[in-house]
Amino acid sequence: MNIHQFSAGFQLGDAISQEMLEIKRLLAKENYEGKIFAENVLSSDRKFAEKLTKANIKPEDVIVYHHSIHSKVLDFLLQFPNKKILIYHNVTPESFFEDYDLRFSYLLRKGREDLTVIKNHFQHSFAVSQFNLNELIHLGFKQSRVFPLHLNFQKWNLNSEDIKSKTHSNQTPSFLFVGRIAPNKCQDDLIRFARTWKSNYGKNFSLRMLGFCNPDQQSYLDELNFMITQLDLQEEVKIIPYVDESMLKKIYSESNLFLSMSEHEGFCVPLMEAMHFQLPVVAYAAGAVPETLGEAGILFQSKDFDQLAKEIDKIFQKNEYRNKVLFQQNQRLNSYLKSTSILPLLEVIKS
Questions:
Q1: Do 281 and 264 have their domain in common?
Q2: This protein's superkingdom (predicted)?
Q3: Is residue 345 one of the residues assigned to a domain?
Q4: Three-state secondary-structure class, residue 263
Q5: Do 145 and 181 share a domain, yes or no?
Q6: What is the separation, in whole angstroms, between the first and last Cα of the chain?
Q7: Mean local confidence (pLDDT), 155-165
């Protein structure tokens, strides 16, 4: 028996892709073999995943499908009578993309419609957060469960140099956001915050936004670059295209606060990554973000940038406050990492 995993796309560094790699690794420890397939795979990533057209499914194989958007993958999988397992990562509401990428907006709308088809043809279903599970339950999925994402932070091998001074205040603010350059991530609001911070506290700070931009959504990236220029933030604000793991580690290590304005998340792995790198996390309370943070980090309900700047300034001015935030984040991260297990997936594979 092989356990084959499928998704619309595979890109190293993407949360779904990382999850598939971790599941493959954990299943291998249980003596299960299998491959990862996707409709879209970058040529540089084909040592990790293969194109959908190369999939060879045998009658005894188990199919694990990671769903987040419409693609050819679902129709391909429906051809087979094999046991099928859904892992739901959420579908971003199409409305975020209607002004930038109509084709992508269509794929998101179809992706949500696909859930009804999946409900009728898949034997088992999981969601990577309670937020996502609530959607499945609302749609009538039976006996679905939360299957927490498997986060592999050992790949970074942190040492004291990587987290030096993270527990000290009075640092030059170095804000970071990691995530796709996309309208639902609201990098435009990060830029507006940077303008407010510069007006209130001067230009001695930096904001880096790191992420891949779909070429079809170039108009949103163009809008961001236009804002940076118009608001005279070229020195302070930088947009960095997707980088490899070693550069990502370097950027996390150089930063001292993670700031998210995202308005839709099915989990948001970078929140956990930031905790791992000892960055205080400040995030807009949308989607699964409150669930992911638990009692840790600092959530805000309103994008009142003047008020938010005051709250964030406290983190840089008050050691005790900053250390309390980091302590709570460490507790949350440790608790989450202990909650992950491959056993729920093994149970349905063997059932």
A1: yes
A2: Bacteria
A3: no
A4: coil
A5: no
A6: 13
A7: 64
The rounded distance, in Å, linking the Cα atoms of 177 and 190 is 9
Alpha helical stretches, state H, 214-288: 218-230, 245-254, 269-276
Q: What's the distance, CA 257 to chain centroid?
A: 17
Q: Report pLDDT digits (tens) over 58-114.
A: 999 999 999 999 999 999 999 999 999 999 999 999 999 999 999 999 999 999 999
* Domain interval for residue 313: 154-337
Q: What is the token pair recorded at 337?
A: 């990492």
State phi, psi for 216 to the nearest 5 degrees: -75, -10
Q: Is residue 246 part of a domain?
A: yes
Q: Contact 271/285 with Cβ under 8 angstroms? A: no
Alpha helices in the chain (DSSP H): 15-29, 72-77, 102-121, 130-138, 187-201, 218-230, 245-254, 269-276, 289-293, 305-317, 319-339, 343-350
Say if residue 314 is in the same domain as residue 242. yes
- Mean pLDDT in the chain? 94
Same structural domain, 321 and 176: yes
Encoding tokens for residue 246?
């070693």
Determine the Cα–Cα distance for residues 85 and 125; give it in Å rounded to an integer.
6
Residues 199, 105, single domain; the answer is no
Domain ends where: 150, 170, 185? 150
Torsion of CA 6, 8, 11, 13, to 10 degrees: -80
pLDDT, residue 64, reads 98
Digit-coded pLDDT (tens) for 212-268 = 999 999 999 999 999 999 999 999 999 999 778 888 999 999 999 999 999 999 999
Tens digits of residue pLDDT in 128-145? 999 999 999 999 998 899
State the Cα–Cα distance between residues 237 and 197, nearest whole angstrom: 12
Q: How many residues does the chain have?
A: 351
Cβ distance 6 to 64 under 8 Å?
yes
8 Å CB contact between 74 and 44: no
The CATH number of the domain where 317 resides is what? 3.40.50.2000
Share of the chain above pLDDT 70, in %: 96
Average pLDDT over residues 2-6: 97
Give the per-residue pLDDT at 246: 86
